[in-house]
Structures are given as structure tokens and as C-alpha cells.
Amino acid sequence: MHAIKVVALAGGVGAARFLRGLVGVVDPCHVTAIVNTGDDFVHHGLHISPDLDTVTYTLAGLVNEKNGWGIAGDTNACLEMLGRLGQETWFWLGDRDIAVHLARTRLLGEGLPLSSITDRIRRALGVRARILPMTDAPFATVIETPEGALPFQDYFVRRGCRDPIHAIHFRGAGVARPAPGVLEAIDLAEAIVLCPSNPFVSIAPILAVPGIREAIERAPAPVAAVSPIVGGKALKGPADRMLRDLGHATTAVGVARLYEKLVDVFVLDTQDAALAPEVERLGMRCAAIDTIMSLPQRARDLARDVLGLLRR
Amino acid sequence: MHAIKVVALAGGVGAARFLRGLVGVVDPCHVTAIVNTGDDFVHHGLHISPDLDTVTYTLAGLVNEKNGWGIAGDTNACLEMLGRLGQETWFWLGDRDIAVHLARTRLLGEGLPLSSITDRIRRALGVRARILPMTDAPFATVIETPEGALPFQDYFVRRGCRDPIHAIHFRGAGVARPAPGVLEAIDLAEAIVLCPSNPFVSIAPILAVPGIREAIERAPAPVAAVSPIVGGKALKGPADRMLRDLGHATTAVGVARLYEKLVDVFVLDTQDAALAPEVERLGMRCAAIDTIMSLPQRARDLARDVLGLLRR
User: Fold this and answer.
1) Which of A89, A90, A170, A259 lies deepest, with the highest CB count within 10 Å?
2) What are A's interface residues with B at a Cβ cutoff of 8 A?
3) Measured between alpha carbons, how far is B263 from B196 in angstroms, rounded to an integer?
4) B40-88 tens-digit pLDDT
5) Which chain A residues have a beta carbon less than 8 Å from that of B103?
6) How far apart, in whole angstroms, are the C-alpha atoms of residue A265 and residue A112?
């Protein structure tokens, strides 16, 4: 069990699986996840934070393993009834899930910041690693498409990622401030990891909060990134289509370029080992590791290997 | 099947059962329920209207027959999770129930009046009788006890009706206005029924909305009331304790006195037939009928008998 302090920038499913591996090889008390909130939205009056929930449920041992998100064994009686009442049902709401959304929404309404609420929820669910939203401020990822500017969940869930992408904007990024604890965690970190998450809509929003990118750049800790693209395809979600639509190479190299000047070590999958020299020409070390976290043991191995690379 | 227009003032379970009987003997399109909203409250950020829900679920054929409220077969996964998150769980929230609360809360937040929302919900659930909240305005029944002034659900559910009662107040009654359709329905009614509901916290709040009592007093239709007290006991809830604590006789006569000058026909249970002369001395006709609606057929018989008495 490593005793080093690790900060991980996290999106949803891929990040959550990596984090679960990480807390298997590092004392969870030394792990801080800084989580994307650009996907957050209000639906049926509920403040929903999909990435915070996915990370929390996964670290709490509650996650639905098949989906990678939601709570295992959760039911959808409420959602069915919403449908019967003529309400929208395109976004899955598990009955247990709704309890988390209700608590978050009510506490936000009482004036508590999202970071305090997130901390309360993770403690109530027995999670020892620290989970921080990137910001307590309103922040929304907006996808520019031929259909117009779509709120992220409209693009992602309601329309199933089917729209070509012209651009991605972060509404609120100009005035957002890092949530309490974010900059301090980065300053004190001994290792920083950009999880295998979508670079455009999971990692970029975090880096777009004024101060976070700068803190990582000046932090003494080495920085690693794990590619979410394997064999030219995203393991989950639309990262490959986004790379293509936005004019980047649809490969791990395309991702590595996005992280130029930020990352010291780039980890790509063994399938993409041949791309390593091209990544190294960007001025970062590159290692090929089995990054497909099909089993929890694989995630632990990956986390251990990434930390090992950062210590070298 | 009677074709007369009936208006019924309704609280929760007893009223809902009577209304279900009523729509069995009168064309439901001619039935308007004016429902108490003094019990409404906000809990976990949800706007909950217990009496509207009980009436709606019962007329929709969805009600949990054993409790008389809630949805048959509803689960409580969300409530359990709320408990795990350290949130309050003293008020039952079924998962399907929550869908109704979510829809209501969201639509209220969008500026729709409660009456429109209630109408939408009952239509979505296939209810043909009209269900009107007594008012669209904020209105709260408050119970004065030795522990201080308790919001109704705190007295009723959280503390289980265990506190002695000094007084009952209706907050908001001064400025509330009847919901759209309420006064018109009363004016056009051919029969008006005060359902077998708690006179203090179900019927009195409705009558306390400025204009409703006056409309009933001047309406051409005859008015009947069905006693919720049988053999000196409330069939459900704390009506008997309220009568006692507030200095009234704990009998059907105590209820009849509260309805003096408003009611033409008072219906008490056959068990209380001996009290009929005392009720008649109050200046109303009195009939003894089997009022215990143990089965739906009994509720239909009771509704038919009450209408028969009003036509005489």
C-alpha cells in the first residue's frame, strides 16, 4: 500500500474504475478525486451530478457493474410513474438514485455548497477517499451541433451522441472558482493523474476552471494521463467521435496532444504500443500498459503501474 | 345512475372512500371534489398534498386499500436510501408517490397553479371526477400544543397525534382565495356533501377559505354531512381527541354542532341512532345509516342513501 498523496482528475465511469483501483493500492485517505461537474443538470427539479454520483457509488461499492453507473439492483418505479404522468423519462432515474438527488437538491436549496454536500454523501456511504467537485459554481458543458447548442445531457443521453460536433463551450467557466480544497490538494499532491476519461467533456471542463490548470502546471508532483482511446476507439462514450469532429487524430496520440505541456507521463494501451514514439516526440514519457479495466484487479494493477511510472 | 351535480368537501381517506362510492351512483363527470390542502407541506424539497393524492389515487383505482392512502404495491427504495444518507424518514414516501410529488413540485416551480397541476395528474391517471384543491394559495393548518405550534404533519405523522391540542390555526386563511372553479361548482351544485372527514383539520380548512362557506350558505343545493364519529370514536385519525381537547362532545352530536346553520341533513351511523333527536334539535334533519365503508359496495349504498335524503 503506497502512502503517497494522489490527486486524480475524474469524469464518470472510466475514472471511477481507475479510482477504485487506486484506493486498492494507495491509502484511500491520501486520494483526492477532483470531479467534473460540467455534466450536472436539473431534471424534474432535481440537481443531478452524474460524474460525482458515478465516482461515489463506485467507491462505495454500490455501483451497477454492468452499466458502470447507477446503483446495483436499483429499481425504477418512480420513473415509470413519471412516464404514466406524461413526464420525461429519457434520463434514467433509479429509485435509490433519486434519494441522492433529493438530498443534494434540498441541501443546495438551503445554501450548502456542492462540495460540502458531496462530502456528506460520500461519508454517509462509507467512502474514505475525498471526492471534490471541481467547482461549487454553476458550470455547464454545452455542445454546439448542427441542431444548435445542446446542453450536455441533451446531446449525451436524450439524443444519444448522434449529432456531429462543431464546438464545445463551458458556460460559467469564466467566473467559476475551484471548490474549497481543490488547489490545496494539487499543491500537496505527490502524484497527479488524469484518469482515462473523455478529454473534451470530462477533463477539459476541470482544467477550464480558472486556477486548476495553472495549479497543476506549477505543482511539484509529476503528472500522468491514461488514454481513454484504445485501438482508435473510445472504451465508452463519444470521445473518438469528438476527436474526429474537432479535427484531431482519433488515436491515443490525438489525446496526448491535448495534454501537451501538462503531462509528464502518458499511458496508452498495449494495443497502441507502436504509437509510443510519436507521443514521446510531444515531450512526454510514454508507457504502454494493459489499460482495459475489465476486472477490479486489472484496475489495481493499472493504478500501481501508473504510480510506479510517476516515481521513476 | 343519478345525473345530478354533486359537490363534495373532502379530506383524506374517509372522503376518498365516500367519493369512490359516489362515482358509483352518480356520473363522475358531475362530481366535483373540493379537497383540503391545509395538510400540504414541503418535505425533502417536494410539495406534498396528502389529501389530493389520497382522493386521486382512490378514484384512479390505485390506492393501497389496507392503508387507505398511498399507491397499492408501491415500494420505498428511495426512502430507505434517504435514511442511509441520514435524511428524515418519518413521512412515508413511496417510489411511485414520489413521481407525483416531483411532477407537482416542478410544475409549481414553473408557475402553474396547484389546481391545474391537480387536474393534469387526475386526467393522466384516468380519473373522470373533477378534483379541485380548495385554494391555489399557500395555506397551512397549525396545531397549538403544549410543545408549541406544530405544522400539521409534525403533529399528525412525526409525533403520531400524541400531543394535547390547545387550538388549531389556519395560516394563510386570511388572504387565500378559492381555487378556480370552486365557487362556480358550489353555485351550480344540486347536492352538496361534507364527507366523513375530520371536522377540524379537513372540513374546517376548506370552510375557512374566504368565500367558500358563504357560497355554500347561499347555494340553492341542499347540504348533507356524514359524521366521521361513530360510537364516540373517530373511524380514523384524531377527530375524537380533537373534539375532547377543544371542549366538544365526543359524539356525532359534537360534530353536528360544528355544522349548525350550514347543513340541512346530518347522517350518523346506525350505532348512534339514539342521538338523532338531539341532532334534530340543532335545526337539521338527521338520518341513521350504516356509514362504515368497509367495502366499496357499502360506500355506494351510503352515497346513494345520502343523495336520496337530499332529494326528499
Assistant:
1) A259
2) 44-46, 71, 74-75, 77-82, 84-87, 94-100, 102-103, 105-106, 109, 120-121, 124-125
3) 13
4) 999 999 999 999 999 999 999 999 999 999 999 999 999 999 999 999 9
5) 44, 82, 85, 87
6) 38
Write the residue in A77, A80, A86 that is nearest to B124 by C-beta.
A86
SS3 A283: coil
Cβ count near B283 (within 10 Å):
11
3-class DSSP assignment, residue A135: strand
Neighbour tally for A60: CB within 10 Å? 17
Q: How does DSSP assign B196-249, residue by residue?
A: SS-IIIIIHHHHHSTTHHHHHHH-SS-EEEE-SEETTEESSSSHHHHHHHTT--
Identity of the amino acid at B132: L
Fill in the amino acid letter for A226. Answer: V
Q: How far apart are CA A90 and CA A102, in angstroms?
A: 19
For Cα atoms B152, B157, B160, give the angle at the middle one, nearest 5 degrees: 105
The residues with which A47 forms a beta bridge, in sequence order, are A42
Q: What is the pLDDT of residues B204-224, one digit of tens each?
A: 999 999 999 999 999 999 999
pLDDT of residue A3: 78
- What is this model's ipTM? 0.94
In sequence order, what DSSP letters do the residues of A259-272 get, joined into one string?
Answer: TTTT-SEEEEEGGG
Cell of residue B184, nine digits: 362556480
Contact B75 A98 (CB under 8 A): no
Q: Is the pLDDT reported for residue B2 higher than 80?
A: no
